[in-house]
Design goal:
- The complex is a heterodimer of chains A (about 110) and B (about 120).
- Chain A has strands spanning about 5, 10-15, 20-25, 35-40, 45-50, 55, 60-65, 70-75, 85-90, 95-100, 105-109.
- Chain A is an all-beta fold and about 110 residues long.
- In chain A, strands 2, 4, 5, 6, 9, 10 and 11 form a seven-stranded mixed β-sheet that branches.
- Chain B has a six-stranded mixed β-sheet with strand order 2-10-9-4-5-6, with no helix packed on it. Chain B has a four-stranded antiparallel β-sheet with strand order 1-3-8-7, with no helix packed on it.
- Chain B is globular and about 40 Å long.
- The chains are: A mainly beta (about 110), B mainly beta (about 120).
Chain lengths: ~110, ~120
Amino acid sequence: EIVMTQSPATLSVSPGDRATLSCRATQSIGTNLAWYQQKPGQAPRLLIYTASTRANGIPARFSGSGSGTEFSLTIRSLQSEDFGIYYCQYYNNWPPEYSFGQGTKVEIK
Amino acid sequence: QVQLVQSGAEVKKPGSSVKVSCTASGGTFSRHTISWLRQAPGQGLEWMGRITPVLETPNYAQKFQDRVTITADESTSTVYLQLTGLTSDDTAVYYCARDPMGFDPWGQGTLVTVSS
């Protein structure tokens, strides 16, 4: 079983600053990685898939990078609407395997 | 543009079962893979299983293998999640979401509360 570990647990950021979130896999997953944003009372929203491809409608200030076991999500010039919990997720189509990190909370500094 | 709409909140007794629905609009329903996930209060996300209606055969996470059934009704573009043997640990928001390569879009979520 592949376990995903995110760091830090909480990130305090001022609006306009850059935020970098990390995600590590216990073994190589290539680029089978997605990132999500979740706000209270809402379903998660897909931001990034295949480690670095922005989903439809996602602003260019969100970027993903990495491969193998180390990944990062960078939010350039954080906006007020970007605060929330961010999850990374490993996916494999066959055999089906999906594993989420425990989340990083991005809060206002 | 696919949209997923889920059934409403449920309150269940321990030991009972629940069946949650997820109806798709837009796109070609039978070829989409739909997964079910859940999120316990204040906790992270957990994948439960998936189905591609045209293939009929569902896949389940090992943790839920004995208690979950996922089915699809192509005539109504609806996918169902049935979970049996409910305990308080099953209290969670249940989501459906389209696969693959990341879950998108998601349903709005269905709160299932298990309480005596």
